[in-house]
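Figure 6 in text form: structure in, sequence out.
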């Protein structure tokens, strides 16, 4: 079966007319314990996740029930798209209640900054060979601090952390979450950003605005916002998105350079376009938008063109 961005691979296997999914996850490269343990945590919160039928942890083999092949990603041209998103937003309060686990990494300031620096290390340094001048370096360091501060000051809850159209499946009984093993306790807006500013699909502006407002109402009704106003929520959402999208752009390059997976390179420009659009809305981040447009995006275009 089609793989994902990890070191795992998936095979559909059959026995007695019934199909199953075999997850082959090399334990020398992947710690499989979070997948198993957090499966229970998500299930106990009333969320649907793959059923683990058998494991051989020594060899990194896990037998799962077959959930079919329909993801939200395959439903994005449906006339019912808006309703799909609304029903998925309704899952976020349940995700927020997933109990903390020893397998959830601490999502502290150091870790948040390290995620941003994936962009700096892999996209700017390893791929583009770019070096900041002193002025830009100072602005970049200030930007990182502001993004970390924003994410730390938000109300925290459990977040799926990769809550987008390729990790949400559907069968006749409803929605199922996959790739939940990197869940952490972090900023309340993170999963909404992952869903509504998906790196693989851009919602029309009118639908985005409607769904962003609805996400606020969903989280507010679930008492997850600690009295945050809607304008405050929008800024938290925007700054969380900046952190996530800078990280994602860096990861797409890392997948290419380290793991020889070129299929994600075409997602870099759409992902950084989110960063540019958001940065243009804030005086303190005008430099970021200008820098990306005038210096970084042309370098990326040249790199991508050279690979054709």
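Output sequence:
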């Amino acid at each position: 079966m089609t793989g994902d961005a990890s070191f795992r691979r998936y095979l559909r296997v059959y026995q007695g007319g019934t199909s199953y999914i075999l997850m082959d996850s090399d334990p020398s490269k992947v710690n499989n314990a979070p997948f198993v343990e957090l499966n229970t945590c998500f299930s106990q919160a009333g969320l649907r996740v793959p059923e683990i039928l058998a494991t051989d942890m020594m060899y990194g083999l896990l037998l799962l029930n077959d959930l079919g092949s329909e993801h939200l990603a395959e439903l994005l041209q449906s006339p019912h798209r808006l309703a799909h998103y609304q029903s998925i937003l309704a899952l976020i309060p349940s995700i927020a209640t997933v109990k903390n686990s020893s397998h959830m990494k601490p999502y502290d300031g150091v870790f948040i900054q390290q995620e941003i620096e994936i962009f700096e290390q892999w996209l700017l340094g390893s791929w583009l060979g770019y070096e900041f001048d002193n002025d830009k370096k100072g602005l970049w360091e200030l930007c990182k601090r502001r993004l970390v501060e924003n994410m730390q000051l938000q109300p925290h809850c459990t977040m799926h952390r990769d809550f987008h159209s390729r990790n949400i499946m559907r069968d006749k009984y409803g929605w199922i979450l996959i790739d939940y093993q990197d869940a952490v306790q972090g900023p309340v807006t993170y999963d909404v950003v992952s869903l509504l500013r998906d790196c693989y699909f851009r919602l029309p502006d009118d639908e985005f605005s409607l769904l962003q407002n609805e996400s606020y109402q969903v989280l507010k009704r679930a008492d997850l916002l600690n009295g945050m106003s809607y304008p405050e929520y929008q800024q938290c959402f925007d700054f969380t998105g900046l952190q996530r999208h800078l990280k994602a752009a860096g990861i797409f390059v890392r997948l290419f350079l380290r793991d020889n997976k070129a299929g994600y390179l075409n997602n870099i420009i759409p992902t950084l376009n989110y960063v540019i659009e958001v940065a243009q809305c804030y005086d303190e981040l005008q430099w970021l938008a200008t820098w990306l447009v005038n210096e970084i995006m042309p370098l990326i275009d040249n790199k991508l063109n050279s690979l054709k």
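Caption detail: The chain has a mean pLDDT of 96.
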